[in-house]
Amino acid sequence: MRKGLLVLVVMLAILMPVKASAGDTIKIGAVVSVTGPASFLGEPERNTLVMLQDQINDSGGILGKKLEIIIYDDETEVNKAVLAADRLIRRDRVQAGIGGTTSGNTLAIISNFTRAEIPLVSMAAAERIVDPVNPWIFKTPQSDRHAVTRILDHAKDQGYKRIAIITVSDGFGQAGREVLRELVPEMGLTMVSDEIYGPRDTDMTSQLTRIRNQNPDAIICWGTNPGPAVIARNRQQLRLDIPLYMSHGVASRRFIELAGNASEGLLLPLGRLSVAEQIPDDHPQKQLLLDYIADYESRFNTPVSSFGGYAWDAMMLIKEAIEMGESAEPQDIRDNLEKIQGFVGTGGIFNMSPEDHNGLDETSFVMARIVDQDWEIVSE
User: Fold this and answer.
1) What is the CB neighbour count within 10 angstroms for residue 14?
2) 28: alpha, beta or left, given left = phi > 0 and alpha = psi -120 to 50?
3) Among 292, 285, 332, 320, which residue's Cα sits nearest to residue 308?
4) Rounded CA gap, 28 and 314, in Å?
5) Spatial CB neighbours of 79, under 8 Å, sequence gap ≥ 6
6) CA distances from 178 to 194, 246, 379 (A)
7) I need a surface site. Which of 83, 84, 85, 316 has the fewest CB within 10 A?
């Protein structure tokens, strides 16, 4: 009987939400894909969080308390992301979380943070992360819907009517596919082809050949590296002159390196971080972006990417929420994240609300073209 009672007590302890304890240190936990297939996303995120921890502590911390950012590498694996999230909550007792790097890993850890009643700010883009709204879950990247809207607006301006899509079969790709299948007809265009490829596929000529046979006016590719670079190279090999749009999932120099000269002329929606020098001097983001670029590149001797910016926004939104409420209690952080208005970040100007846990819209993107291995704004 006593043994059974002990087992019951242990099980209840496991199931009960774990509340972070107050002290002289504010603990923020991060689940980041520093290694594995998404390392080109996760490494700049990790670097940014390390840099911010030092900068914030050097300037007095948050509310006079030292900031400690505990970062675990999930190696781009879902199971390891879940284990890392559980460790942050139960062992490290963090007051807020950042992560994951990818949409799939974020979706896998949402329940951990929700059960524990600890706010999580994701660095992944899938709309499903915040729609429908979960009281404890937020995200910093612009949503798929915003990117799709910018792409389709540009396509319509060019007179394109027949659209082909090719999407990767992971969380990010399929979330984008859902929005594309919804908005292409809604915006008066016709979807003539709907192809899918695997995250580890190394040749997509068969999908592109089927697309060519449907005679589209433009192709939209939705995925993260390396797949989109393969598609760009296959398009070049097949001598397809059909305009090719990429998603914001390839908004890093790494994509241009992987695709080489096959990237020339490709179009995509970009956050202004990637084209900071090209935006008007009076734009509210300009100085912040230039400062982040200078800080990051001087410390790590490598170019910034939008993905590191997602980490900057996540940490600084949490800091803003703590300072607004003068409290690092998880419930207070959550409540104040929802109240943030007019916050200038790397990804845009955030206006959060109980109905919107992303706080951005399509104006946070510019449309850009790759010209001479660099980004060039084609429309604000």
Assistant:
1) 9
2) beta
3) 292
4) 11
5) none
6) 11, 16, 25
7) 83
Number of neighbours of residue 366 by Cβ within 10 angstroms? 20
Are 136 and 115 contacting, i.e. CB atoms less than 8 angstroms apart?
A: no
Distances (CA, A) of 307 to 1, 22, 33, 152, 215: 54, 31, 11, 23, 34
Q: Which two tokens stand for residue 66?
A: 């030292």
Rounded to whole angstroms, the Cα distance separating 319 from 331 reads 14
Q: pLDDT per residue over 285-311, tens digit each?
A: 999 999 999 999 999 999 998 999 999
3-state class of 142 per DSSP? coil
Confirm or reject CATH 3.40.50.2300 for domain 24-143+289-361, answering yes or no. yes
Domain ranges of the chain: 24-143+289-361, 146-277+364-379
CA atoms of 378 and 265, how far apart (whole Å): 11
Does 100 sit behind a cis peptide bond, omega within 30 degrees of 0 on the bond before it?
yes
**What are the tens digits of pLDDT across the range 177-222?**
999 999 999 999 999 999 999 999 999 999 999 999 999 999 999 9
Q: Does domain 146-277+364-379 have CATH number 3.40.50.2300?
A: yes
Please give the full DSSP string across 211-229, using - where no structure is assigned: HHHT--SEEEEE--TTHHH
Cα–Cα distance between 251 and 268 in angstroms, integer?
8
DSSP 92: S
Examine domains 24-143+289-361 and 146-277+364-379 and report if their fold is the same.
Answer: yes
